[in-house]
Amino acid sequence: MSVKHWLNCGGSSLSTTRIYDRLPSDAGVTFEGFEDIKLKSRESVKEKLEDFIEYCKNARKPAIRVILGEWGEGKTDAYKRYIEPKAKADGNYAFFVSASTLSNGYETPPVVKLLKTTSLSAVRFLVVVFNCIREESRETKIPDPQSYQDASSYLNATLNNLIGEQKTRRIFIFIDEFEELLLTPARLRDIISGVKETINGRYAAIDEGGEYEGCVHFIIAATPDAYYRLQVDEESALIFGGLGRRAGVIDLPQIRKEEGITFIFELLKYIYRNNLPDPLPFNNLGIFNAIFRITQGNPGNIVSLFTRLMNSARVDEKSIKVIDSGHFLRFLEKEYIFVYGGSTACLETETFYRFLKLIEDQKIKDIGKK
C-alpha cells in the first residue's frame, strides 16, 4: 500500500489493529533494516563520500573530509550506510572511533608510556587512534601497545599488520561526535594538532615517498555549530586554521516534507516487516505531517518520536490502538525532543489549551445567538 493510496482511502475509523512485529530504538540511532530505507536527498552525500574514497585509492598523502550535520541528521548512519560498505567492498579498512574514546585514549597507561618517546603530534595522535580502534573495534591485527617500547615501532608494527605487502590497501578512520571534544579544550588541541600534522605529512611513513604512503585517511563528523566554534574560538582557531584549509566539507541536507512523510511511512512498513495490517494504525495522514513538523524533519528525532508514539498505543500482546488526533495530542503533552543543541516540548500545552478555550467560547457564543 502506498502513501497516496492510504490518503485517498481516508485512513481508518476502527479502534484497534494488529500489533507491530518490532520497533527501532527510541534513541533514534541506526537500527537493523534501516539500510533499506532510502533518503533521496542524501544521495549527494553518498556520491561525495564515494568520490573521496575513490580519490584516496591513488592518493600519496593522507586526506580528510568533514561531515557536517545536526544531532540526529545521520552522520553516524553515513558511516554504516556508505563508508564502511564501500571501503570493505574495495578490500580496504574502515574503522569507527568516537571522539570521547579518543580523548580518553591519551590517558591509557600503556599508551602514555609510548607517548613519552616522541614529541611529534602526528605520531602521538596516531598511536592513540590505533589503540582506540583496537579497543573499540576489537581489531586483532592492531597490536597491544604494552608489547612495545616506543611509538615509532608500535606504529610500524600496526601498519605492517594491516597493510603488509599490499601497499595499495587503504585505512579510513571515521571520528564521530567531534563536538564532544569542546568539553575538554586541552585534549581538543592535542587532537586537532595531531590531525593537522598527520595531514601535513609529519609522520613520514604514510606521507608521499614513505613506506605506506597515502594509506591512512580521515572522515570527521561534527555539528555545524561545533565546526564554527573550532574556527573562531581563540583556543583552537590558530591550530584549526591550518587544518580547515585542507578539510573538504560534506553537508548533510535537511530532508523535505514529502520525503519526510514517505520516510515515516517506510518506518511503518519496517515495524510490520512489510506486512501492513488492516486497518493501519493511524486514522489519517495528518499525524505524519505533524510528526515531520514537530521534529523539524530531523531523521533521528522522527525515528525516536515515531517509536515512542507506537509504543504508547500498545493495548496488549496482540493489538494496538488505531492512533487518532486525540491519542496523538495526549501523547505529545509529555514528550520532548532534542533539536539544534537544546530540548523543547513537542506541544506547548498552555497555548494549546488557550486555543481550545477560545474555540469553546466561540461555540457557546454561536449557540447563544441561535
Describe this structure in words.
There is one protein chain. The protein has 370 residues and is an alpha/beta fold. It has 15 helices and 9 strands. The strands form 3 sheets. It has a 5-stranded parallel beta sheet. Strands 1-7 form a two-stranded antiparallel sheet. It has a two-stranded antiparallel ribbon with strand order 8-9. It is elongated. It starts with a helix and ends with a helix.
Question: What's the end-to-end separation, in Å?
Answer: 46 Å
What is the molecular shape? Answer: elongated
Largest sheet: 5 strands, parallel
Number of helices: 15
Average pLDDT figure: 85
Strand content: 5-15%
Run of helices and strands: HEHEHEHHHHEHEHHEHHHEHEEH
SSE-based structural type: alpha/beta
User: What radius of gyration results from the CA coordinates?
Assistant: 25 Å
Count of extended strands: 9
Biggest sheet, strands in spatial order? 3-4-5-2-6
Q: What is the percent of helical residues?
A: 40-55%
Poorly predicted runs are 6-12
